[in-house]
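Because showing beats explaining, we let one protein speak, sequence and backbone structure tokens together, and leave readers to judge.
___
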Amino acid sequence: MLRNGIFRSPVKWAEVRIQGKESVRGLLMKADPSKEADMVVYYCHGGGFSMGSPYFYLEPHLVLLSLLQRHYQNPAVFSLDYDLVPDRKWPVQLDQVTAGYQFALSVASGDSARVCVAGDSAGGTLVLSLLLALAKKVGVNGIKPGYATLLSPWVTLVSPSNKDTKSDFLNFDTLHLYAGEYAGTTDNLYNPLISPGCCKDLQWWASAAPLNGFYFSFGSEEVLSSEAKTLIQLLRKASVPVRVREEPGGVHAWVIANLFLCNTFEERIFGMQEVVKAIVSNIPPSAKLKN
């Protein structure tokens, strides 16, 4: 924000800590903290399970919240600060993501249809794992989120389809090293709750899908695009609504990268604007908001 001459946050944000089976930490940003939120984006950051935090993503989150305010009366963003490898391994992160989702539901006053789960890269992995896990719980129809937006998701942790490209900054060997640290064991790498692309069960995906489906965004030049396309095809076979943007010449997490690297304001926010368009189309703004 400093590079744009912003020295104070234009939106109030608060650190959240909830004790439970796994302590939940994160940042909650709400347009008006004194009022009920009329929609919530629950975000899981990327970073190969080994780096990153909601604080690193603070500027993207504020851009997202600002764009959402053009459509909703009081949107909120809750960004999870999950534990990283090598200090903690699966299933700790999935437990934390699940607990964080429960908190996001509380911010939405229990209305899961007003929640959009979102994540980039490894955060996208965690979102997909969360959805698959929720599908195995009793009464899933009452806790399904309204929508999911996945930005360059790491769909299958270890796959021959994850191939290096001339343009992308990710590389095959490093990805698979991080994957092994997260999974803990070789056998775990093929567990769908760890590596969601390993799930080929159409019924499971149909049960796991959010109420209004998915939005996928990825670059045409990125290492992970092939596995994302495979999952999109699978979801469509399961009759799940899927909206896709493949950015020509784009690299991994181009929506996030553009916010930091592009020269003009319009170029920086373009990818995030497309995300918000998809959210608004699938979680329609409510007519009234309680004080």
Summary: The helical segments are 58-68, 92-107, 122-134, 172-183, 202-208, 225-237, 254-261, 265-282. The CA atoms of residues 40 and 115 lie 5 Å apart. The mean pLDDT is 90.
